[in-house]
Design a protein that fits this description.
The protein has a domain at 39-119: 3-Layer(aba) Sandwich (Rossmann fold). Helix content is 60%, strand content 10%. It has seven helices and three strands. It has helices at residues 2-10, 12-35, 39-50, 71-80, 93-106, 121-134, 142-147, and strands at 58-61, 85-90, 113-117. The protein has a three-stranded parallel beta sheet with strand order 1-2-3, covered by helices on one side. The radius of gyration is 25 Å and the shape is extended.
């Protein structure tokens, strides 16, 4: 096996290809790290900003991905106002699963949050008109696909 390793080390093409992969990985990692959201800095700013607001009756969450970077902010808001009700926008039945999980991670109690469908009927009409006029190909929604089963 050592002979095979020695041969590969002597092979300039193998060495160059391996070196290229290492450099590509380092470059991609650097880019991803530069795109990472500075959550701790944003949390500190949110904390300062929340001190200016009175306790709300309801917290509405519109179009949030509920990703791992969003949960710390929502926990902070929940900690500030632990008994306030929350309402999350829902676009498909799968969103409800994500909202259930996010609500659990935020620390919301059962019955402390509700989903709501956020639809602008006028924008749907306009979209249909544009699709027809421009001959745009459309695809079924997640709900339409799930309901076919």
């Amino acid at each position: 096996m050592q002979n095979e390793i020695d041969e590969l080390e002597d092979d300039a093409q193998f060495y160059q290809a391996a070196n290229n992969r290492v450099q590509e990985y380092s470059f991609e990692k650097e880019i991803l790290e530069s795109l990472r959201k500075p959550v701790s800095e944003c949390e500190a700013e949110l904390k300062r900003n929340l001190s200016y607001y009175k306790k709300p009756y309801l917290i509405n969450v519109y179009g949030c991905s509920l990703g791992e970077v969003d949960i710390p902010y929502m926990r902070l808001i929940h900690k500030k106002w632990p008994d306030v009700k929350w309402s999350f926008s829902v676009y498909s039945s799968r969103d409800r699963e994500w909202i259930d999980e996010a609500a659990r991670q935020i620390g919301l109690k059962e019955g402390q949050w509700t989903p709501f469908e956020f639809k602008n009927l006028m924008s749907s009409d306009i979209q249909e008109e544009i699709v027809l006029k421009e001959g745009i190909m459309t695809y079924p929604t997640i709900d339409e696909l799930l309901n076919k089963k």
